[in-house]
Design brief:
By secondary structure, this protein is mainly alpha-helical. It has one domain: Orthogonal Bundle (Arc Repressor Mutant, subunit A), CATH 1.10.10.10. The protein is built from seven helices and two strands; from the N terminus they run αααααββαα.
Length: about 150
C-alpha cells in the first residue's frame, strides 16, 4: 500500500464531480432547510418524511416503511420512538405475522401532518424555483440511482 497521497488535482476533480458527494451535500442542505420550516410544528424533515410514509389507508409494516425510505428496519424503529412518545404514531403487533409490527398515524399525527403539508408545499415550490435545471429531470435522475 502506498503512502503517497492522491494528487491535489484529483481531489479537486472528485470534489467538483463526485455525484455521491454532491447528493450528500444537497441532502444535508435540504434537510436543514426543511428542518427549519418544520420547527414550529416540533418535527424534523426526517420525521415529516417518515409520517408521510405512514399515511396510508392501512398501517404498513416497519419493513414496508424501511423499503420506501431506503433505511434499515432498526433505523426506522429508532426514528419512530420519538413520534410514538409524542402520541403521533402507534406501533402494534402485526395480526398476520406476530413477529412483525405495523405502524400507523394517530389522529394527532394525521392532524400534524395535515398542518405541516402546506409548509412542505410552499418550501418545496420555493426550492424548485431556485433550481437552475428542470426539477422533473433531477427527480428522474435521483430515482434512477436510488
Amino acid at each position: 500500500m502506498s503512502n503517497v497521497p492522491a494528487a491535489f488535482a484529483t481531489t479537486l476533480h472528485i470534489r467538483d464531480n463526485c455525484l455521491c458527494l454532491q447528493a450528500q451535500r444537497a441532502a444535508r442542505a435540504l434537510s436543514r432547510r426543511f428542518d427549519e420550516a418544520f420547527r414550529p410544528y416540533g418535527i424534523t424533515s426526517g420525521q415529516f418524511s417518515l409520517m408521510n410514509g405512514l399515511n396510508r389507508p392501512e398501517p404498513p409494516t416497519i419493513g414496508a416503511v424501511a423499503s420506501l425510505l431506503a433505511m434499515d428496519r432498526s433505523t426506522v424503529t429508532a426514528n419512530l420512538k420519538p413520534l410514538e412518545r409524542a402520541g403521533l404514531v402507534t406501533i402494534a403487533v402485526d395480526a398476520e405475522d406476530r413477529r412483525g409490527r405495523r405502524v400507523g398515524l394517530t389522529v394527532a399525527g394525521r392532524d400534524l401532518l395535515a398542518r405541516a403539508t402546506p409548509v412542505w408545499i410552499s418550501e418545496h415550490a420555493a426550492i424548485e424555483a431556485e433550481l437552475p435545471a428542470d426539477a422533473d429531470a433531477l427527480r428522474a435522475g435521483l430515482r434512477a440511482v436510488a
